[in-house]
Specification:
Elements (H helix, E strand, L loop, with lengths): L9 H14 L3 H13 L6 H14 L2 H14 L6 H13 L3 H10 L9 H13 L7
């Protein structure tokens, strides 16, 4: 159940902007665009989340990814699915946040989903980045 942006199409515009910045390795500017979008009251849309998680992965900004995943999606009434969970888990993987990744992996069933190959891969890589082979 996604809501319509206050200004029609503005969410898509920000999504394209964030995606372009992420693809050109300008993740700081992508994060600034995200902040600008949120401060303007643009309704969060599913299509904006994946490119934003991509930028957050490059920035290794796992705290912001966790906030977006758990708080902002709930406020915007966006149901979490494998795509969104795995995109966030990629951020935890890149940031070497193995404990956060493990907690997310074990909490996936709360969203009526089962961890998939990608979920396990991100968690194993996060553990291995930190030398936590016992957990991997």
């Amino acid at each position: 159940d996604e809501r319509i942006s206050p200004v029609s199409g503005l969410g898509w515009t920000f999504s394209a902007l964030i995606m372009a910045m992420d693809q050109s390795n300008q993740w700081r500017k992508a994060a600034e665009a995200w902040t600008d979008m949120r401060s303007r009251g643009v309704q969060l849309e599913r299509n904006t989340l994946l490119p934003m998680f991509g930028a957050l992965a490059k920035a290794k900004s796992w705290e912001q990814a966790l906030h977006v995943l758990l708080s902002e999606t709930r406020a915007a009434r966006i149901d979490l699915d494998h795509h969104l969970l795995n995109a966030a888990m990629l951020v935890f993987d890149k940031a070497g946040q193995w404990t956060v990744s493990l907690k997310m992996l074990t909490s996936i069933p709360r969203y009526s989903l089962q961890p998939n190959r990608e979920s396990f891969t991100h968690t194993i890589r996060a553990c291995s980045r930190c030398g936590e082979w016992t957990w991997a």
